[in-house]
Design goal:
Order of helices and strands: EEEHEEEEHEHEHEHEHEHEHHEHE
InterPro entries: ADH-like_C, ADH-like_N, ER, GroES-like_sf, NAD(P)-bd_dom_sf, QOR-like
CATH superfamily of the largest domain: Medium-chain alcohol dehydrogenases, catalytic domain
Oligomer: single chain
Helix content: 25-40%
Keywords: NADP, Oxidoreductase
Largest sheet: 7 strands, mixed
Number of helices: 10
Pfam family, one: ADH_N
Organism: Streptomyces olivaceiscleroticus
CATH architecture of the largest domain: Alpha-Beta Complex
Number of domains: 2
Protein name: Quinone oxidoreductase
């Protein structure tokens, strides 16, 4: 089979298409013919060596496809079933080994592209708005990178619950996507340094009558963290979701008291969708939301496996919106 292999950590150029042995399903495992794989910032971090991925390795962890083989001790899945997953290392390959406990069945009316584009970010938006901070009607939320794949899902789910959503985007070109998702106001923060943290937070406070927002969802990290903290109301919740611009600067927990007894959390999907029953319930909601239009599948780019380096470069550029997918048949 063909797969993308990383022999050394580095930039996009280290992503090389190579032949690898066909995998075999072990106990509790599935071998799946890949239909589409999601491209995520996590993949970029691991490629660069900022993650637990000793070389050589096949990157990727999210995708959808058709079961070719079910190993011993697998119940509920058989060859021919269509499944999706968010946690199967080595997903940039024509055939992927997926733990059956980490797989969910894809409804017949959704394509592999739909499932691969929505599952990880949809599950993340699900737990962030129901478990991390149960969003409530009348609240106000600040969503950074509101035109991105996760950002659009967050905006839609928050707006659905009656939350007033203020989104930030990196360029004017992205404002329409954030508004279409349901953001009530959109702030263009521009390139790093264009708008100071105090200025950005000040604009958010103006939009909330000086009150500040109840919750901040920050997937950007270094470039936006301070602005988010300044924009929160007293006893507000700062949710660090990722670090697209780099890690959030170190923060003394004592400073949260002086800022208004703020809450700060860094949740992960691992702790919210590892249990198969919880995963199935959340995934069922996500797929139903796609069906009824609550969530929109937004694909920002489709690439062949051999174009993985270009996909990484374009995701890192910040110029894309929506989900980027690798398609082995392309």
């Amino acid at each position: 089979m063909r797969a993308i292999v990383v022999d050394r950590h580095g930039g996009p150029e280290v992503l090389v298409l190579a032949e690898r042995p066909d995998p075999v399903a072990g106990p509790g495992q599935l071998v799946v013919q890949l239909g589409a794989a999601g491209v995520n910032f996590k993949d970029l971090h691991e490629r660069a060596g900022r993650g637990p991925s000793p070389v050589p390795f096949v990157p990727g962890s999210e995708g959808a496809g058709t079961v070719l083989e079910a190993g011993p001790d697998v119940d509920g899945f058989a060859p021919g079933d269509r499944v999706a997953w968010w946690a199967a290392p080595g997903s940039y390959a024509e055939r992927v080994v997926v733990n059956a406990s980490a797989a969910v069945r894809v409804p017949d009316d959704l394509t592999d592209e739909d499932a691969a584009a929505v599952l990880l970010q949809g599950l993340t938006a699900h737990y962030l708005t129901t478990s991390t901070h149960p969003a409530a009607k009348g609240e106000a939320a600040l969503v950074h990178a509101a035109a991105g794949g996760l950002g659009q899902h967050l905006v839609r789910l928050l707006a659905r619950r009656g939350v007033r959503v203020i989104g930030t985007v990196s360029s004017q070109a992205k404002t329409d996507a954030a508004r279409a998702a349901g953001a009530h106001e959109v702030i263009v923060r521009g390139a790093p340094g264009t708008v100071s943290a105090a200025e950005l937070a000040g604009r958010v406070r103006e939009l909330t009558g000086g009150h500040g927002v109840d919750v901040v969802y920050d997937s950007v990290g270094k470039d936006t963290a301070e602005a988010g903290l300044l924009a929160l109301r007293r006893r507000g919740m700062f949710v660090l979701v990722g670090a697209a611009s780099g890690p959030m600067p170190p923060l003394d927990p004592q400073s949260l008291a002086a800022r208004g007894s703020l809450f700060l959390t860094r949740p992960t999907l691992v702790d919210h969708a590892t249990d198969p029953a919880e995963l199935a319930e959340r995934a069922g909601d996500v797929f139903e939301w796609v069906r009824d239009g609550t969530l929109q599948v937004s694909v920002g780019g489709r690439y062949g496996l051999h174009e993985a380096a270009r996909a990484h470069s374009e995701l890192a550029s910040g110029a894309t919106s929506g989900k980027l997918l690798l398609l082995p048949a392309r």
